[in-house]
Amino acid sequence: MFARQAFRPARTLQQHVRRYASEAPKSSGGNGVLYAGIGGAALTGGYFYLRGNGSPAQDAKKALGQATEAKKAFTGGDQGFVSLLLEKSEIINHNTKLLTFKLPEDDMESGLSVASAVITKYKGPNMEKAVIRPYTPTSDVDQKGTVDFIVKKYPNGPMSSHLHDLEPGQRLDIKGPIPKYQWSANKHEHVAMIAGGTGITPMWQVANAIFKNPEDKTKVTLIFGNVTEQDILLKKEWERLENTYPQRFRAFYVLDNPPESWQGGKGFVTKELLKTVLPEPKEGDKVKIFVCGPPGLYKAISGGKKSPQDQGELDGYLKELGYSKDQVYKF
Fold it and tell me: What's the CATH class of domain 82-179?
């Protein structure tokens, strides 16, 4: 168990967190739109500002074009798997890659909402049954022409191994969208995200949607556990949010095997840390807590899900701290 001073002196952290958690959301009118790159693949913003660079007729035509709904690659329902070509494969760290797949048409969007996922399918030559696994894209839902996935390779993981072995020009069967927690601007005043490993991907999808929207004033607190510092996915993107929106976003990192110079949390995500940095449970539906990660994290923090459709009962640290089942969503 780590002490509060693992982040900074306990008194300073406590004062800062309490002030941060209790402040009313401030206007971010001067912040504009955040453009966050993932491993060199830019996440395009979904908000555009029309400027009168042409005639009124040209401006009206431009506005009409932007209002037209884009074609969707994934439409759900009876649509089967869509075969997508791998355009680019980039190494992020020792066991993680960024994979960029080309959508069927250049002007297409993925068709995903925030938050939602897709399922992938692969059947090797010596496999009796196809392997099906869910993944949450990390690209912006409005990104046109391509969709990005951050994939960690797990020992004896048939799908993650297959994805890491894919070469540009090869294809993967993907189907979606699979709806998760449907986000809308200002749905809650404060969102807390507790993630481990690649459980960070749905958290990024929600946070990116919040901070790219000038109308959304939601506060976000992230608690992110990993094995080593190199395993902290999207760290530059989270740091950019923290620097751009210091009154609305805070991130706390916890490492199993930290370097000697590490100033963040050490060990596992603890009840003490959550009590220190999370918003108060008494705030009801003003607060929402998202949890996503490996089985051990669910067991300790919130209890596991019974199925993709059944959230199960709330358990673990969040229950002990007084949060209700309705305040917690398990991705």
Answer: mainly beta
Q: Which residue type is seen at 82?
A: V
Was 12 annotated as part of a binding site? no
Mean pLDDT of 257-273: 94
Rounded to a whole number, what is the largest CA-CA distance in the chain? 64
Q: State yes or no: 135 annotated in a binding site.
A: yes
**Residue 152 marked as a ligand binder:** yes
133 is in an annotated binding site: yes
Q: Is 18 annotated as a binding residue?
A: no
CATH topology of domain 4-30+182-330: Rossmann fold (3.40.50)
Domain ranges of the chain: 4-30+182-330, 82-179
State residue 66's pLDDT score.
54
Read off the pTM: 0.80
Structure tokens at 304: 């596991």
Whether 179 has a binding-site annotation, put simply, is no
pLDDT (0 to 100) of residue 283 = 82
